[in-house]
Predict the structure.
Amino acid sequence: MTADTQIILFLLLAIVALAIISWLVARQRRSRALRERFGEEYERTLAANGGSRAKAEADLVARTNRAKAIEIRPLDPALRQNYIADWTDTKAMFVDDPVGAIAKADRLLADMMEQRGYPMGDFHARHGDLTVQEGEVAKHYLAGHEIADRATRNEATTEELRRALQHYDRLFTELLDENAPFRAS
C-alpha cells in the first residue's frame, strides 16, 4: 500500500468514525430531550414498548407531531355551564353510586375533550395527546381511567373510586380552563 492510499484510507475511516460519533451524540441528545419533556411518561412508554428505546421514542415523536395538528378550542359558554352542572351532579352521585359516578365522569370528560377539539380515538390516543402538553394532567387522566376500567369489572374499592374522582376532577378543571396549556406548540 502506498502512502497516499494509507492516507486516503485513514481519512475515510476518520470520516466514518466521526459520522458514527455524530449520530450517537444526536441520538443521545434526542433521548435526553424526550426524557426531559415527557418525564415519567417516557419511562411508561419505554416499558409499554418492551424496553425498546427506538420504538418508545418513535411513539413519543409521533405523538408530538400529531399534537401539532390539534386545534384546541374554547367551550361555548352555555355548554361550559352545562358541563359544570353535569360535573356537580356527577360528584353528588358518587355518594349513592360510586361506580356509576365514575362511569359518568369518564364519559363526561371524553365528551368535553371532543368538544375542545381532541381527536377521539381510543383512550390511549386521547391520553397520548395529553402527554405532549400536559404530562401531569395526563397522569391524572390515566390513573382515573385505570380505576374506572377496573370498576367495570367490580375490582375497585370505594377508596380507589374516590381517588379516581379526584384524578378526574383535576382533568375536568383543566379542560374547563380556557387558559390551560392544552395547545399544540
Q: What stands out?
A: The radius of gyration is 23 Å.
